[in-house]
From TrEMBL:
Coiled coil regions in record: 1-28
Role noted for this protein: Kinase that can phosphorylate various inositol polyphosphate such as Ins(3,4,5,6)P4 or Ins(1,3,4)P3.
Reactions listed under catalytic activity: 1D-myo-inositol 3,4,5,6-tetrakisphosphate + ATP = 1D-myo-inositol 1,3,4,5,6-pentakisphosphate + ADP + H(+)
Designated name of the protein: Inositol-tetrakisphosphate 1-kinase
Free-text remark on how the cofactor is bound: Binds 2 magnesium ions per subunit.
Keywords from the named record: ATP-binding, Coiled coil, Kinase, Magnesium, Metal-binding, Nucleotide-binding, Transferase
Organism: Datura stramonium
SUPFAM superfamilies referenced in this protein's UniProt entry, alphabetically: Glutathione synthetase ATP-binding domain-like (SSF56059)
Oligomeric form and interacting partners: Monomer.
């Protein structure tokens, strides 16, 4: 007897699980039953679905009365569900319109997060404005943003624009649209003309080769260390030329949690500072699911810079994310 194709078996299993989930949703009749089951409709890319909806999260969620149900993008959203929460990370104006219309007709459903608020942090020209306006400074430290310049076209004009803006080399070049995590490090003025606009140029700040990823899930704040680009000395700056490309900083090296780091470099930012920053940015950005890439200027104890904001980041890499995220969803329902 021939073995059945593993892909077919796997697909049938997924279909059976999906049908079982929809039967559970349809079975929600009385208000008492609805209180016991939280249905989260999700619209994610296949890559995000795989990294986020890991078996441990799905299993824990079921035990807590939370059900994740895939949204069928080929069908009207209003015909699906009923959902208590819609979790999404899709791009495009069509999806944004669909979601905005759904929010208006289903005000009782919590949408994570508003499309317009998400679009705001996808554009690096505006992404860090709220941090800069915040100008956070208290007894625990100062938080700012690197000086930056937006270049929309004509790479030949970049050296002159950089000179007029008074920016110092080296410069980090990032795509203007934050859906790409690629970045480049430019060491001299001539090499700037090799960059491809539209982009943002940020002054590179030496930070000991370590950055802090601050994950925010509602009111929960979790911080982890990651290796980053190494410091650039004046000697290296004078001896190097050209543009060095990096697929993404997080690919330069993985977690720095277990590394034997100099305390001046590896010490986490003060918890009260991070909590205040997260609280202020939640309010200003109108988002509940995002993370901050923060660096500490090398040679200082309390001067921090937010260099990037990411919406719905890779929570699967955050320690204890299953418990943090399911608790967040349950608290969201209590607040409703």
């Amino acid at each position: 007897m021939r073995m059945r194709n593993e892909n077919v078996v796997g697909y049938e299993r997924e279909v059976e699980e999906e049908e079982e989930e929809m039967e559970m949703v349809a079975a929600r009749g009385s208000p008492q039953q609805q209180m016991k089951l939280v249905v989260v409709g999700y619209a994610l890319t296949s890559k995000k679905t795989k990294s986020f909806l890991q078996p441990k999260l799905v299993g824990l969620a079921r035990n807590k009365g939370i059900l994740f149900v895939a949204i069928d993008q080929s069908r009207p959203l209003s015909d699906q569900g009923p959902f208590d929460i819609v979790l999404h990370k899709l791009s495009g104006s069509k999806w944004s319109r669909i979601l905005e219309d759904y929010r208006k007709t289903h005000p009782h459903v919590a949408v994570l997060d508003p499309p317009d608020a998400i679009q705001h942090v996808y554009n690096r020209q505006y992404m860090l404005e709220d941090v800069a306006d915040l100008n956070l400074s208290d007894g625990y430290g100062q938080v700012g943003v690197p000086r930056q310049l937006v270049i929309e076209k004509d790479p030949s004009s970049i050296p002159d624009a950089v000179d007029k803006a008074g920016l110092s080399l080296p410069l980090v070049a990032k795509p203007l649209v934050a859906k790409s995590h690629e970045l480049s490090l430019a060491y001299n003025m001539v090499s700037l003309q090799k960059l491809e606009p539209p982009l943002v140029l940020q002054e590179f700040i030496n930070h000991g080769g370590v950055l802090f990823k601050v994950f925010i899930v509602g009111e929960a704040v979790k911080v982890v260390r990651r290796f980053s680009l190494p410091d650039v000395s004046k000697r290296e700056l004078s001896n190097n030329a050209g543009v060095f490309h990096f697929p993404r900083v997080s690919c330069v090296a993985a977690s720095a949690e277990e590394a034997d780091l100099d305390p001046c470099v590896g010490e986490l930012p003060p918890r009260p500072l991070l909590e205040r920053l997260a609280r202020e940015l939640r309010r200003r950005l109108g988002l509940r699911l995002f993370n901050l890439d923060i660096i500490r200027e090398h040679g200082t104890k309390d001067r921090y810079y937010v260099i990037d904001i990411n919406y719905f980041p890779g929570y699967g890499k955050m320690p204890e994310y299953e418990h943090i995220f399911t608790d967040f969803l349950l608290n969201l329902m209590k607040q409703k």
